[in-house]
Specification:
The protein is α/β, with parallel strands linked by helices and 345 residues long. 26% of the residues lie in helices and 24% in strands. Helix 3 links the parallel strand 8 and strand 9. The longest helix has 19 residues. The chain binds NADP nicotinamide-adenine-dinucleotide phosphate (NAP).
Length: 345
Amino acid sequence: MTQTMQQVVLASPAKGSPLPENFRVETVPVPVPGDGQVLTRTLWLSLDPLLRFAIDEVRLTGATHIRPGEVMYGGTVSEIVASNHPDYAVGDIVEGRTGWREYAALDPIKADIVRGPLRKVDPALGPVETALGVLGMPGQTAHACAVGIGQVGPDDTVAISAAGGAVGTVAGQIAKIRGARVIGIAGGPAKCAAVKALGFDECVDYKATDFAERLAAAAPKGIDVYIDNTGGAVTLAVLPLLNRGARMPMCGFIAYYGVGMEGPGPDHLPGFYRMIMTKGLKIEGFSGQAVAGGDAVAEMAGWLREGRLRNQETVIEGLATAPAAFCETFRQGNSHIGKVLVHVA
Ligand SMILES: NC(=O)c1ccc[n+]([C@@H]2O[C@H](COP(=O)([O-])OP(=O)(O)OC[C@H]3O[C@@H](n4cnc5c(N)ncnc54)[C@H](OP(=O)(O)O)[C@@H]3O)[C@@H](O)[C@H]2O)c1
């Protein structure tokens, strides 16, 4: 009897914030690996905001593009359960972009949805799912923000938007390890409490009507490093508080994901450019993994072992829940804290 599995395909492109109806769960036969291929069994699926770019109606510059009917792409940690490739053995744990499906048959070096080879995960570094969170792409991005581009030091006041997210929770803890005063910005009192429990000095609720005043009160000496994960109204409140020569790792802009090229409201760019000029700001966009590299993972694995860095995750059970959980990411003030993972098997 043919063994079957679940997979999630794109049903329709997203307009604005993604909706569960944009996805469809299908039951299909488990694929059979061909020559040079491996069969992976998905253990953990990572839900990342950047996946929103892949499901737009139009192909966005530099983004993977998924068309209706295609399996949703995304990062996973999987186990090799069959191998026709000499470098990969049954039982190996690998990280890669094998997609929203329970099994995938693919060439581990040059696969369809996977960009680049499947990377072997060293279970000695921590629980294997941390390869998608604190010791994976979001953690490396946080390291790039705080250490590489932000160059956070002990005299700095650091502000972080989406502080309760996968990047924000780690970036704030690294900034604390480096001795800075750290202010998180997140939606709602519960999330702010969770952020503070990670050791942040303050967490300001951007949903409060007096958010700008509260933020200014939390940063009496101004802000030296702003790790921007959102853009939008949160960033507009931070900009006036930036000190001269402040560093601004421009990590993400989730407030503008899915709103088209122009963004909402009046065009703030002239004022923004003026502020870059008058305050001599150093603003840098980047790929976190490219900036941080493997040394960052080794450093953070050491901090995890020593208990100086805490691994914060929100785990959702079952592949079929992935569409709703992914859409929840874009609802401001959701209950997600830290890295959002789907436990598949
Ligand atoms: N440059 C890179 O290499 C790189 C790598 C990874 C991620 N990123 C980017 O970094 C950002 C954070 O990623 P992540 O993995 O930490 O995300 P995440 O864990 O999914 O957290 C996202 C959080 O952002 C908040 N949010 C959503 N819409 C918002 C809005 N309009 N305004 C303010 N906050 C909003 C929500 O929390 P609240 O409850 O607080 O609203 C949400 O839970 C994203 O923009 C992502 O694309 C960049």
